Amino acid sequence: MLITEIEHPTHPLHKLKLESSPVPYICDGCKELGFGICYQCQICNFHLHKECGVPSSSFYHRFFEGCEFKFYEKSPRPDARRCDGCGRDIGGFVYQSSHEGANDLHPPCAKLPATLAGEGMTLELKKNVKSKCLKCKSRRNSSEGARGWCYVSGCGKFCFHVACVKEMVYEAWEMGYFNGQETEPDPNVDGSVVRSLVPSGPSSSTEMVQPRPGKATHYWKMVASVLKLILSAIFGDPITAFATLVFPLVQSLATN
């Protein structure tokens, strides 16, 4: 049953309604970027991802056998924490396991679909893969260890770290791609992902440099389809926001 209105202890002044945000927002729970449908108070400009507004008190994840994850509004551990799903810092709401060397997950990352299907493609969320990510060209990040989970196609040709896709979107957002104004830089983003490729405002797909005909054309169309699926899974299906962004992102991959 879909809950359309909630009372939340982090915002006791007003009830939060499940509505579509017209612009990107930073979730006041987990402090991660969000798009589209969320629990919000328009009076106070307060937003919570759906997963943060109505979290599970505890759950088990298939990637961590036997580990119970409990929900916390703030990590009970004093040290800096990183999400095991996307590799980004934990800054607020978190699911955390209680064993030694605890694992952490942002609420939206904890709920990432195991399988994505559409656009003539099926992708599976995996913890470890043999394929290299099409963005970072690696299975791992040499300076930080594992980059977190990946979505990978059955054939193994199409693979993206969740971390890499989020990084591309964060940089586009910081450059004002979605709302026409720049935001403060995010410390998790290296600042070089799409800077030379994403325009100051949304562009038409016709502005993308056309790939070579034949197999290459088909390949990059498939890459675009894969990105659309992953973007929708991570950020909640904001098709309008990402419709034109996909093409410069694919262009950046094609030219690197």
TrEMBL record:
All residue ranges annotated as the Phorbol-ester/DAG-type domain in the record: 13-67
Domain of life, per lineage: Eukaryota
Chain residue ranges for the region called Disordered: 187-212
Keywords: Metal-binding, Repeat, Zinc
MF-aspect GO terms: metal ion binding
Protein's name in the database: Phorbol-ester/DAG-type domain-containing protein
Organism: Manihot esculenta (Cassava)
Upper taxonomic lineage: Eukaryota, Viridiplantae, Streptophyta, Embryophyta, Tracheophyta
